User: Fold this.
Amino acid sequence: MTTKERFEKLVYDACVIYGNCGTGDTHIYDFLPKAGTLTADEFARLMLKAEKMPRWRYEKQYLENYDWCAARFRKTMKVDRIEVSEIWD
Assistant:
């Protein structure tokens, strides 16, 4: 499985399994850089940004979702960081 295929599975899982699909008008792809690296923690932060879930307002839920997204990144991608250019091919 390529990095792009793994990432697509990761985003699918985050949406379908955990409900972090974005708000309809925003999606994680709107916030991803075109180059550089993306870490598990950055992925989690961007997923919740797309979800429009501010930490200050939803502290407990934010932290639970953040932890799930970061852990799912590591599980699916099998690394802690990826080169973003590999998901845009």
Residues 3-87 form one domain.
